[in-house]
Design a protein that fits this description.
The chain has 50 residues and is mainly α. It has helices at residues 4-31, 35-49.
Length: 50
């Protein structure tokens, strides 16, 4: 059986990786002037950080 601590560590690692990827995608979208994508990624970031 997998411990709750192991599950929580995996969840946190996944969330951290996801947010790092979102930040990179946001930077690129902003640099390319892709405002619709920036809006979408900002909304996604808000969803994962609330």
């Amino acid at each position: 059986m997998i411990s709750q601590k192991t599950i929580e560590n995996a969840r946190q690692a996944h969330r951290t990786a996801l947010l790092e990827t979102l930040e990179r995608r946001l930077e690129v979208a902003k640099s390319k002037g892709q405002s619709a994508l920036v809006d979408q990624l900002e909304a996604e970031k808000h969803y994962y950080t609330k």
